[in-house]
Amino acid sequence: MSPAAQDWQRLSGLALVFIIANSVQKTIRENLFLFAGAGAGAAFTDWLGLREFGLLLLLFLLLSVLGGLIYHRRFRFRLEQDAVRVRRGLIEQKELRIRFARVQNIQIGEPFYFRPFGLVRFSLQTPGAAEKEVELPGIPRQLALDMRDRIAQQREDPQAADGAAEGAADALVYRAWAGRLFLHGLSSNQVWVLAGLFFYVGGNLLDRLSDRFEPYLETAAESIEAAWWWAPGLLALLLLVLFTLSGLLAIVRFHDYRLSDLGARLVAVAGLLDRREQTIRRPKITGLLLRQSPVGRLLGCWTLTVHQTQSGMQVDDGGKSSFLIPGLRSVDLPVTARLLEGASLPREFNGVSARFRQFAWSRLLLGLVLAVLLIMLLLGRHHWSLPWLAAGSVLALPLLHWRFRCWGWALQGSRLWVRRGLLGQRVDAFDLERVQQASLTTSPYLRRHDLATLNLVLPHGPVSVPFLPEAVAAELANRAIYAAETALGHQV
């Protein structure tokens, strides 16, 4: 590709399919909780008949198609010497120019309907952006690869332009097969999202169709003499189906996952229906996050998220724009050293003060006493909720102790590891030079025992360590400030 600026280009006609589908998906996602909240969805569907619902759906699709046509016709992009310029907008046209040197994340997606035509979806994200700033759906694959390599040649990583991910077999550092991906689906929180969606949709359908199927339900109930034994079995079968579905969805999303190290950039390739290539520039990495859900701890399965600069304090841990490595086992954790030089999960962590546990137990005891007094005054001394409240408090004691044990920190040179969790666990790793702000917070209780909470603000969000000895917290804060100022001085 010539480095000179090119004329304005338009998207392929097939890009219209992606624009319309993306618009419909975004509208549904943004309004799903509003529709479901407070029973609004059920009330709305009760008010609508089948014909009215169909007409509204048809109107919604027609408006989406019309908006997509206008957006597609007004969309233009142009490549310049060191940047890409985009003109877009539905009613008001906006022009955006992104310098290649500022790009921290590149995605090349190949939806199944683009593949026969050699087209891809090309996306760019810069530090501080809440979402993808530039998305070019339906452009030739070769054009996308050339743009990716030109971005890799900017500033700090000129050597990273040699070869694509598929041509660098010797740089392959991790590959997840179907079994690993299925375990990732079982251990991810996706299963609970599916469960919530199932019960919400199933509850609405049952309410709408209860009158029609009531005779059949009564007959079935009468034919079952002991209904208590099949209810747990039915619940177990439902959970089995949901977990299996979650595992299969993970296989579809991360099919043939491959992570390659190309020197100054990392490239991940995955996906069955939508094959995605995601590139992150090593200097743009701000930290790592290792996660285990409760199910993941039982299965010994980890998920690794590579952090970048995020907009505000919202950390994206699992969205499609996240650089996520699924299905890791304990033997795979040394891959962290390929992401952050020399990073290895510490075998031992320094714990927080035991005052953390005492403080949590005292607050629990105080809340229990107040709740018991309130129930006795309002509902009487023999109310049925009192034994359950006491039993719940007893069960909470070991959970609070376990949460205290999960807190920990470890310092490896200038790299800090922070561990936290309860049934699952999360481990953050970052270089102190990445810290943008360090502070200590105290309370009368903490000051009485010479303790403090260390608060660190990183480009991808805040990290805190509570109930540290005040001298230790101050030393970590000072080291972070010194490392950040020293790194800034070297850059200047």
Q: Explain this structure to me?
A:
- The chain has helices spanning 15-36, 40-47, 50-74, 141-152, 178-187, 190-223, 230-253, 294-299, 336-339, 355-379, 385-406, 444-448, 470-491, and strands spanning 76-79, 83-88, 94-99, 105-111, 119-125, 134-140, 172-176, 257-261, 265-270, 274-281, 287-292, 302-307, 323-328, 408-412, 415-421, 425-431, 437-441, 451-458, 461-469.
- The chain has 492 residues and is an alpha+beta fold.
- The chain has four domains: 15-177 and 256-283, no CATH class; 184-252; 285-351 and 407-491, no CATH class; 355-405.
- The chain has a seven-stranded antiparallel β-sheet, sandwiched between helices. The chain has a six-stranded antiparallel β-sheet with strand order 13-12-11-16-15-14. Strands 1-2-3 form a three-stranded antiparallel β-sheet.
- The two termini are 33 Å apart.
